[in-house]
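Appendix B: complex inputs.
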Amino acid sequence: MRHALALVLASVLTAVVIASVWFWTATPRLQLAAPSTVAAPLAERFAAATPAKPLAARDDVEVTSAIPAKSPAAPKAVCANPDALGVSRVVVVDTTGGPGFGFEHFKQLDFLTDKEVVLTFDDGPWPGNTPAVLKALDDECTKAVFFSIGKHATYHPEILRQVAAAGHTVGAHTWSHANLNTKKMTPQLAKDEIEKGFSAVKLALGADPAPFFRFPELQHGPAAVAYLGTRNIAMFSCDLDSFDFRAKNPEQIINTVMTKLDKQGKGIILMHDFQKHTAKALPALLRRLKAGGYKVVQMKAKAPLQTLPEYDEALMKDMKVPVASTRPVSSVVQTVSE
Ligand SMILES: [Zn+2]
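Resulting structure:
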């Protein structure tokens, strides 16, 4: 009996030893195997995301490594219109010192070549008309610069966001469309109009605007010009005024622009996305530009404008935008009875 017990004990001991040896030798193998098990389905998932055509082993590696690099970048828009006006070139403007554009007032920077135009739109964003302008531009896969009125940006921020989302450049056109070249316009008031306008555009966009500015009524007072220079904001006049705000119908706008363009050969065109006739004229006008051999140049800013925090804050206060509290919940709401 005692012998039998010793035998059982010995068998149990042997079993334990064998199990331990197996465990300590097998475990590292299991751990090594684990990452490759996870990696295999991952690789298969990447492979599944690539085109269905069979790929050689080396192609597989290249495609897989390209996926993370591609995903953060915005997909390049493909133009559905094969005969679109399009954009012939994109220029980036270094706004240091406040360069002036548009030969009506600023004659230093002649960057357009023959048959090149820049499309610019003032006074928006506005319901109906601005979205119609955006659609006309989109149908022709072309881009423009929009000079928004600050007040209008606060009325219709969602429309201004559509303008930016469509890839157009968004600058400002003062807070309230004030003439900055009158006797009543002090340097301080001019600064307020300029800065509040840019802060309103920023608030609407949720992003920094381009440091591009157009004077209301193209009235550039010397104090305002000097101030914009210190803020490194580019000033825009125009080469060619469509006078769309006083046109009696869309046809009149098209005729004015095409007649002036055919005479001048190129230029920055001033229009208003705020105006109904402009929105209606635009599809045909863009077709006429294409037929006339004109090419659209898109102007972008090298760097966005840093708005002044005091104007951002004053505007938020004016707009009664609730200021987010940074206090923890426990200090704001306390349970006093359960
Ligand atoms: Zn205007």
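The longest helix spans residues 2-49.
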